[in-house]
Amino acid sequence: MDVDIIEEEQHLAQVQSLRSAGKRPMRLPVDDAHPFELEAYISSYSGRTYVERLLHIMSVCPTLAPQALQLAIAEAVKGRDTSLYREIFSRYDRAHVDLGDEIPELSALASFDQQWVEETNAKNQAERTKLEVELKTYSSNMIKESIRMAHRDLGDFYRSIGDLSSALKHYTKSREYCTTSQHVLDMCMSVVELLMEQRNYSHIATYVFKAEAALESVSIVKAHAGPEAPAGAAQIQKEKRNAEREKTQTKLDVATGLSHLGQSNYEKAANTFLKVGPVKGLEEWSRKLIAPGDVAIYATLCALATFPRPLIRSQILENDVFGMYIEQEPYIRELLESYMSNRFKNVLEILERYSTRHHIDIHLHFHVVALTNMIRSKALVMYFQPFSSIRLERMGQAFGWTVEELEQEVVSLIQSGEIKARVDRQNKILKAKETDQRAALFAKAIKSGQEMQATNRKLLLRMRLYAFGYLPLHWLTLTVSSQATSRPGGEAAKGPSGVQLLHWAPV
User: Fold this and answer.
1) Contact 324, 279 (CB under 8 A)
2) What is the pTM for the complete model shown?
């Protein structure tokens, strides 16, 4: 029992030090205070992202590595990526080195299937040769549609074996042979999926923009294509086109949101994720690239960190479409309701309870600490707003912190200018800075007077220069009447639209 208490205290101390340093824990805890069901979590994914998420779990949470190893091997042998299969074993070896005897050795859990690797490599080589021969044949015949499809097939093949750079090369090469807007849209969507798998966030927006332009063209073409149909049939076709467009736009919004999240543009990420259409619009992207619950988590954390409370209510709680995503992660609704009802202690407890779930996400793990700190800071600012002074002890009870922890957080907010207050360290009281409105008004008036005086002084100086004939070395454009005459010493020239150009020479 004493050992458990000591380990828990050491963990809390580590988390507190990492929180203050702005870093994430090196080893994520999985216990009663941080529950996490690996099989339930990973069942929301399939294919390559299934294995890559398990590899990430082996790195950040080595205690789950034995279970992740078995699941990753079972999924990897369904595909044809031998390099990914090798990475599973090497990743577990690194986890075993980190933990030592806390997890079993690799040989006790699984053995490397060399025969499967050799057979798969042979099949991959045969498939590559076949596709490359087809591409050469089509290129020699100069059939654009066949060349486009050959590049697309090679891109799909290289993507399936894990050679993402070659896949990207063939996808982009197929653009030269696209003959319709639909072809361009299909190419852009393939590239966007590939960039999401690569987590190349900075380039996603480029191809999303191209895809949206192609989607607009496709919609226009389909709207005017074919003979005119009867009124009822035309309405059905229109609804079908709108549904197809909405599904594509939903995917593009998800990709854009991930791009903003990956680049730490949290407010833009929240706005984009909240525009995402219904869950069914994700189609094959659900499980293959992202789970609906992930959209709820990303949008909620980014919104809590950046949105004012009225916007959270209108954009999230009153958003029926986004409510379908929240249903995938029930604790998200509890988090939102606690935040909106000022139960900030419960908010922080929920964030800590599900911190492991957030850290094991491959897109979110680099941003968890930053988002948590931003939510905590906003909560402190909102809690203090109604008070002119408050005891740190009372404030600490509302957040579940000690006076020392709270004082450290408050001081950092005061230094950053988010809270206009002072800390009485002797009496442990936080006091808001009182502003003398009368003095502030006088100061503003004096400043405005000084600015006006400086402007007038410059104008008077310029008028004196004009009076004595000393002007800047550029033409002055003056609007004059037809009866006006230039003064002595000046030369006048007619400009456009009856404007007279005067250039005054020094006397």
Assistant:
1) yes
2) 0.79
